[in-house]
Amino acid sequence: MPGKEQLKAAIHAAFDSVVADGPSYTKVYAAEIRQKNYVVFRRTTISNFAVGFRPGQTDLVIVPLDENKGAVTAGAPLTITDANRASVKKRDLQGRFVIKTSDGQTFRLTVIPSVPKIAAGFYQLPVDQKAEYEAFTAVRDTLTTA
């Protein structure tokens, strides 16, 4: 597994490769953890995302990510603007940032300042993003009070 800085650089490069003017965005790593409980077992699905934003603006670009041995590949980006944003919740019961689009998509994102290496065992990508996290919380707070 590559180091936290190499992984962070790979996430930013993957975002920049699929988003026009990608380097102008501030980017944070986010994970979405979904659990389904069955009678005999519980199934957990973890999705990784890069969330891009510009401080002072309310538009978000969400890019799904796949990681394999340090190589990060990006999926198709989704831009969420004032026009297609249906609702935003600062925290749900599990403490996740929840954003819904007008076409029915829902993202329940966990964004933390530092993802420890032990979380890699749970399929989260270990990154340090303290400065980016602070900038993201400012945008999140703007979205939830608007």
Describe the structure in brief:
The chain has 146 residues and is an alpha+beta fold. The chain has helices at 4-18, 130-145, and strands at 26-37, 42-53, 60-68, 71-74, 78-80, 85-89, 97-101, 106-109.
What tags apply to this protein structure?
3-stranded antiparallel beta sheet, 2 helices, 5-stranded antiparallel beta sheet, alpha+beta
The profile of the biggest β sheet is:
5 strands, antiparallel
Q: How much beta, percentage-wise?
A: 35-45%
Q: Ranges with pLDDT <50 over ≥5 residues?
A: none
Shape: globular
Provide the residue-averaged pLDDT: 86
Helical element count? 2
Structure description:
The protein is α+β, with helices and mostly antiparallel strands and 146 residues long. The protein has helices at 4-18, 130-145, and strands at residues 26-37, 42-53, 60-68, 71-74, 78-80, 85-89, 97-101, 106-109. Strands 1, 2, 3, 4 and 5 form a five-stranded antiparallel beta sheet that branches. The protein has a three-stranded antiparallel beta sheet with strand order 6-7-8, with helices on one face.
Task: Present the secondary structure layout.
Blueprint: H1 4-18, E1 26-37, E2 42-53, E3 60-68, E4 71-74, E5 78-80, E6 85-89, E7 97-101, E8 106-109, H2 130-145
Antiparallel strand pairs: 1-2, 2-3, 3-4, 3-5, 6-7, 7-8
